[in-house]
Structures are given as structure tokens and as C-alpha cells.
Amino acid sequence: MKKHNWLIRPSQLGALMKKGQGKNEFGEKNEFGETAMGLIRETVRFHKYGTQPEIVSSEYLEKGILNEREGMQLAKDVFEWDIDIDAPKVRLFNDYMTGEPDVNQSILADIKCSFNSKTFDKVFFNKVVKNKDYKFQMNAYMMLAKKDQCELVYCLTSTPDHIIQDKIQKVTYQLLKQPKYRNNGMEDAFSMAEHDAETMILSQHKFEKIPKAKRVKRFIIERDDEMIEQICERIEKARELFDEMFEQI
Known about the structure:
This protein is an alpha+beta fold and about 250 residues long. It has helices at about 15, 35-50, 60-65, 70-80, 115-125, 130-145, 160-175, 180, 185-205, 225-249; strands spanning about 90-95, 100, 105, 110-115, 150-155, 215-220. It folds into three domains: about 10-55 and about 230-249, no CATH class; about 60-160 and about 205-225, Lambda Exonuclease, Chain A (Alpha-Beta Complex); about 160-205, no CATH class. The strands form two sheets. It has a four-stranded mixed β-sheet, with helices on both faces. Strands 1-2 form a two-stranded antiparallel ribbon. The longest helix has 24 residues, at about 225-249.
């Protein structure tokens, strides 16, 4: 059987590390959960036939991508990082993974731009990283970059205008269903609802008035060699399954 040295991206590790529930038809414990199996299946089909995985898109992901540079600048200002935010990313490789850290200069860091204050506050008041998927991801970056420390930084940045306008429009039509607005003429009702929607959405997605230092949360993650060993072992097992599936389809 041909061996396929599938290289995992750090962002895929959260899915790949998911354990299975129960036992299979042979009475053996399921090594991989359905999330992991789904990742392996779609990757096999892509490698063999070029079938592109489904593109998952949302306003949360879109903001994270569009605001990455702004988040880097915010972190640089607050933490006085000696970095060039316009430096091109460098793709790293080893025998198990490939990835592009957001920052890999004097420091190694990954930037997460929160969608709004509610999602930001879920991490701002924490003292430790509670998302284990991110611990896997940061250790993968440390392994790739050959570093002993990685900074996971959450940033509260203002939402891009086109996303804000889309949300204002949606909330406007939601408000128009309320009696408060229906009791007015259609034109006046729409103006009132749009004004209220704009006030509401802007307060939820514009954060320039908040001091910069209160709009970032940094976690320093130390290299965990035991976790890295678990990651490598998991990838080896996933590759065995990958090879089996590759021959079947």
C-alpha cells in the first residue's frame, strides 16, 4: 500500500484530535470521532480526485480574516512588539505539519479577532486558555517554528463597515415587526427602526472609545512536548486510516 505523508495544518488539529465514542463492530474503541473522520474523508477525496472541501464561511470568519492586520497592529502597540506587521508570512513545514503563523519574528504569535464584545469578554476575564483546540494549534506552531513559547492574542477590533451595514438592515426589518413601529406610517416606521438598529449595532461593533490596552487579551503558552508527542502519534494513526481510505475510493 502506498504511503501518503499527509501534512496537517495546525488549525485542523482541533478536529483531528477528537476522540470517538463507543466501540466499532469489532468491539474495539473508536479511535477517531466523527469530526476527525469527516476531516480525513474529505482530505482523502481531495488528494485523490481534487474534490475541493466545502468552504465554510460566516461573518465571524470574515471579520477574523479582514481584521488580522488591525489586530496585529493593536497587539504591537499595546505589548510593544518589535515586529513588522507588513512582513510576508512564511509557510513552515516539517514531517507532520505545515502552517503559517500570524507572527513569526522576534516573537511567535497567533491573532484572534473577536466578533463583538460578548465573544471577547468570554476570554478577557479568563486567566488561562480554556480552548484546548488552541493549545494544540499553538504547540503545532511552536514545533514548526522551533520555539518554546507562543502568544495567543485576542483582539477587540471594530467590525468592517459592510458587515455592520448588513446587520443594520437585518435588525431594521426585525424591529419593523414590533407594534411600536407598525403603528406609524411605513416611511416613518422604517426611518425609526433603521435609526434604532444603527444605534444598537454600532454600539456592539465599534470600539475605538475603549482604551487599546482594554481591547487585547494575551495568553503566553509554553511548549508542551508531551502534547506535541500526542499530536505526532495522532497524525501517524490518521495517516494509516488515510491510506486505507485512499485505496478504497
